[in-house]
Amino acid sequence: MLFACAQSEPVETSGERIVSLSPSITATVVDLGKGNFVVGRSAFCAAVDSSVPVVGDLYSIDYERLLRLRPTKVFVQKTTSDINAHLVKLAEENNFDLYAWKCDRVGEIALMHDELIKLLDCKTDPLQFYVDKTEVALPETILLMTPGAEGKAGLCFGKQTYLDDVVVMMGGANAIETSGWISLSLEDIARLEPSVIVVVSDTHFEVSKGVFALDIPIIPFIHPDVLIPSSRMTDVAIALQHELQAQ
């Protein structure tokens, strides 16, 4: 959902100065062809050049550097916590316009993308996110998790997360019934008895020995954008579908 903290005179797109404190939003801005307007970023925003100054993130911001960059717009990602109060105050003082979106689910990613199209006057179409239900039988239940470490399980994707949405669109079922990102012990995973564990990462990894010891089939899934819920989720979904169908 779009959130504006301040109203100001319209600014020509050619004069935009964007600070994005969300990797998801930054990647989408770049995909829309407006990456050259990003003048500040978070340390995790790898979609723009590393020379773009790091301003901070939603929880820790260098306000002096932020104001020196003279942004016209600041983009943040909505979380369960309130938006940084001082950031809201700066926007209310008309230093810039502040916008925030949730990026937890596929529909929210599409909404963020489409509202950015209008906000930045982009000449492109709305995001068409669609995954065909596979005709190949998928595992009965799928557990999606990040790589674990030191014998421990990684963070798991529960219901109402973007990868859960993708699996459901394919006709699959998430082994977890709880909503959100879940931390499970190896014992918890064993009790769930998923048909397969899909370990997702944006770089090469080694599955922890503890997860291997569960004796549950494991599918490693590596994609550079799998942990950044942005407009690139369509590519992630297609790649994940191919991986599951190949098993």
- Gyration radius (Cα, Å) is 20 Å
The N- to C-terminal Cα distance equals 38 Å
Q: CATH topology of the largest domain, anyone?
A: Rossmann fold
The total tally of domains equals 2
The portion of residues assigned to helices is 25-40%
- Largest sheet, described in full? 4 strands, parallel
Q: What is the spatial order of strands in the main beta sheet?
A: 2-1-3-4
Low-pLDDT segments: 1-13
N-to-C SSE string, H for helix and E for strand: EHEHEHEHEEHEHEHEH
Q: Which homologous superfamily in CATH is the superfamily of the largest domain?
A: Nitrogenase molybdenum iron protein domain
Total number of beta strands: 9
Structure characterization notes:
The chain is of the alpha/beta class. The chain has two domains: 13-119, Nitrogenase molybdenum iron protein domain (Rossmann fold, 3-Layer(aba) Sandwich), CATH 3.40.50.1980; 142-245, Nitrogenase molybdenum iron protein domain (Rossmann fold, 3-Layer(aba) Sandwich). Helices cover 28% and strands 15% of the residues. It has helices at residues 23-31, 63-68, 85-92, 106-119, 162-170, 186-192, 209-212, 233-245; strands at residues 18-20, 38-41, 73-77, 97-101, 142-145, 155-157, 181-183, 196-201, 218-222. The protein has a four-stranded parallel sheet with strand order 2-1-3-4, with helices on both faces. It has a three-stranded parallel sheet with strand order 5-8-9, with helices on one face. Helix 1 (23-31) packs across helix 4. The longest helix has 14 residues, at 106-119. The chain is globular, with a radius of gyration of 20 Å. The two termini are 38 Å apart. The model is unreliable at 1-13 (pLDDT under 50).
